[in-house]
Amino acid sequence: MPYLSGKETVKEIRRALSNPNIQSDPLRYRNTVLKVIRAMSQGVDVSDLFSEMVKACATVDVVQKKLVYVFLCSYAHLNPELSLLVVNTLRKDCLDSNPMVRSLALRSMTNLRLPSLVEYVEQPLTAGLRDRAAGVRRVAVLGWAKLHNLQPGSEIDATVVNELYSLLRDPDPVVMVNCLRALEEILKEEGGVVINKPITHHLLNRLKECDIWGQSEVLRVLQRYRPQSEDELFDILSLLDSSLVSPHPPVMAATLCLFLSLCSSFPAVSQAALERVRGPLLAACGSGSREMRFTALCHIQ
Q1: In this structure, are residues 114 and 83 in contact, taking their beta carbons and an 8 Å threshold?
Q2: How far apart are CA 65 and CA 53, in angstroms?
Q3: pTM
Q4: Which residue of 127, 174, 240, 275 is 20 to 30 Å from 96, comparing CA positions?
Q5: Mean pLDDT in each 10-residue stretch from start to end of the chain (301 residues)?
Q6: Of 126, 95, 89, nearest to 108 (Cα)?
């Protein structure tokens, strides 16, 4: 396409999006949608193409859907009335046989961030929590946290909270960690997620299934738990022993913080933990990353 001004670019793309010959050719149609995203990324105001892009959403091409969703989430706030059409399309996609399409639809639905559309989003999110695909459940869990942020003063739905608590035992570790994050956000005014003995031991036993940042999140949340006996305390410390010398600095630092929190009444145990992490912490201070060096020095302090 030759160089055109912003308005001329939008007119040119609109003609292409409305051209039956292009619409009948999936590859050309997708490339035209891509031109919209490219123009958007270059600062061109393409909000006038909202109606055409809503129509482009009705496709089986997953790549085209992704592109259209990016556009719709960026401009939905400028077209709240037309956004209702978007939600109807997204709700249909939430029933698609492809789990990738279902997760994309759920994510885009919550990323529209329009309070007026909350009532249309709740049912697909509830269904998403029970979806057979882990990827859809991951998105649905975080979607409830986004929904709560849209209506911070609204009453918390006890049914949703209970379902999120039950998903802490989901076989997928990412769903489990996402539930912790969502509950922390939703129950912020009540002090966050309630950590009792069964939840604590369940999280500790599944710690190694999580990725680095998932482990760090679990260890951070566990700092608010207090063991009910010395035997339980040392059982927990035994489970944390390997994480204390983890090769990953975030996990090692989070474990150390938890150790020191749990062992506040046992200075000898705290001292032993500090001795064990001395080497890794000093090694982190010699890292080539300035951010890593700064963080390691903060932990040492």
Answers
A1: yes
A2: 10
A3: 0.85
A4: 174
A5: 65 92 92 93 90 87 91 86 81 91 92 84 94 96 92 82 95 96 92 92 94 94 92 92 87 90 88 87 86 87 85
A6: 89
